[in-house]
Amino acid sequence: MRIAWFYRYDQKSTEEKRFLSDAVKLYTHLYEAGAMKPDTMSEDQLLYLIGELYLRLEQPSISRQWFSRILTKKVSEEKWRKRARDRWLEYKEESQSTPTLVDDQ
């Protein structure tokens, strides 16, 4: 994921997205395999990160699914619930204020 940051800094979006895609695949695999060590990152933090990466990869429907996992858990860390909720609301506001390229007529 850090390599993706370098490409973002250099404004090379194709390469950035390639590395973000690799990162989200890895994090998803870690989550599904239950292979994340608790001292590295909490489950809620991992769910949030996966949701955020999908937003950056312009896949909001998948992102929403991951954010929803945090919000629908019986027990979750409040700070990650709040971040997931706030980030999704931020995304919705951004997407509503961005004009679409397709004419709806």
TrEMBL record:
<protein>
    <submittedName>
        <fullName>Uncharacterized protein</fullName>
    </submittedName>
</protein>
<dbReference type="Pfam" id="PF09986">
    <property type="entry name" value="DUF2225"/>
</dbReference>
<dbReference type="InterPro" id="IPR018708">
    <property type="entry name" value="DUF2225"/>
</dbReference>
